[in-house]
């Protein structure tokens, strides 16, 4: 699986958009970009995933560059409950394909 | 949506005893489940892939005789920590992917915190 690089930590003001970057320059053509988050002492929560096109759901938007070497997760209106570690993972995503977690980004939403 | 349940959520045991953690997919079938371990202030580390009806596949460095995995049905996988020691104290998390789901999303349980005294 390709590796990802994320900033260790980021701050965001409550109510503002949080933009979390991820580099995955060695991503393969069949690998998806997944985003999960982990709130303290809980299991990871799925946020969004994409292959080539930008994606949006009720939680966030995912912007993938045209060359697929990087992506950005956007939380449009961050709240205090969005404080968590955010993981960007690339994987083929098949039924038996595992997800390998990196160190992630600790997003701290400030009041 | 898909739900994965883990039990127990917290367990304390004495050194030398064995502890079993259950992972259930509540509303879907999963031929494959994954077990992770997480130490404080660290990321999740994949321990093994649990395969229904066959042997688990362990990641490098994970002792298969210490961490016994059984995937007896399409909705249940168990992790047994045998002869537990204080260094096995950790947060254990399972995950599963719905067989028929095309979204390719892994759903995670809430985790089981093991403390070995």
Summarize the structure.
The complex is a heterodimer of chains A (111) and B (117). Chain A is an all-beta fold.
Write the layout of secondary structure elements.
The complex is a heterodimer of chains A (111) and B (117).
Chain A lengths: L8 E5 L4 E6 L8 E7 L6 E6 L4 E2 L4 E4 L5 E6 L8 E8 L13 E6 L1
Parallel strand pairs in A: 1-9
Antiparallel strand pairs in A: 2-7, 3-4, 3-8, 5-6, 6-7, 8-9
Chain B lengths: L3 E4 L2 E4 L5 E7 L6 E7 L6 E7 L5 E2 L8 E7 L2 E6 L8 E8 L8 E3 L3 E5 L1
Parallel strand pairs in B: 2-11
Antiparallel strand pairs in B: 1-3, 3-8, 4-5, 4-9, 5-6, 7-8, 9-10, 9-11
Characterization of the model:
The complex is a heterodimer of chains A (111) and B (117). Chain A has 111 residues and is an all-beta fold. Chain A contains no helices and nine strands. In chain A, a hairpin with a 4-residue loop joins strand 5 (55-56) and strand 6. The N and C termini of chain A lie far apart (37 Å). The relative contact order of chain A is 0.35. Chain B has strands spanning 4-7, 10-13, 19-25, 32-38, 45-51, 57-58, 67-73, 76-81, 90-97, 106-108, 112-116. In chain B, strands 2, 4, 5, 6, 9, 10 and 11 form a seven-stranded mixed β-sheet that branches. A four-stranded antiparallel β-sheet of chain B has the order 1-3-8-7, with no helix packed on it. Chain B starts with a strand and ends with a strand. The mean pLDDT of chain B is 92. The chains are: A mainly beta (111), B mainly beta (117). Chain A binds chain B through residues 32, 34, 36, 38, 41-46, 49, 87, 93-96, 98-104, and chain B through 4, 6, 31-32, 34, 36, 43-46, 49, 51, 91, 93, 95, 97, 99, 103-111, 113.
């Amino acid at each position: 699986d390709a590796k990802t690089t994320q900033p260790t930590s980021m701050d965001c003001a409550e109510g503002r958009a949080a933009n979390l970057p991820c580099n995955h320059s060695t991503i393969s053509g069949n690998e998806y970009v997944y985003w999960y988050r982990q709130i303290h002492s809980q299991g990871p929560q799925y946020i969004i995933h994409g292959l080539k096109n930008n994606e949006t759901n009720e939680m966030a938007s995912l912007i993938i560059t045209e060359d697929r070497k990087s992506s950005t997760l956007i939380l449009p209106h961050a709240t205090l409950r969005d404080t968590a570690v955010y993981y960007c993972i690339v994987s083929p995503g098949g039924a038996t394909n595992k997800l390998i977690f990196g160190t992630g980004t600790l997003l701290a939403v400030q009041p | 949506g898909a739900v994965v349940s883990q039990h127990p959520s917290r367990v304390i045991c004495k050194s030398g005893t064995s502890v079993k953690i259950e992972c259930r997919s509540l509303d879907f079938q999963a031929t494959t489940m994954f077990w992770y371990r997480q130490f404080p202030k660290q990321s999740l580390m994949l321990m093994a892939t649990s395969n229904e009806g066959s042997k688990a596949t362990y990641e490098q460095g994970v002792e298969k005789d210490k961490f016994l995995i059984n995937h007896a049905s399409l909705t249940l996988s168990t992790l047994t920590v045998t002869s537990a020691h204080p260094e096995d104290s950790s947060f254990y998390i399972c995950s599963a992917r719905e067989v028929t789901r095309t979204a390719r999303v892994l759903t995670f349980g809430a985790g089981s915190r093991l403390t070995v005294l």
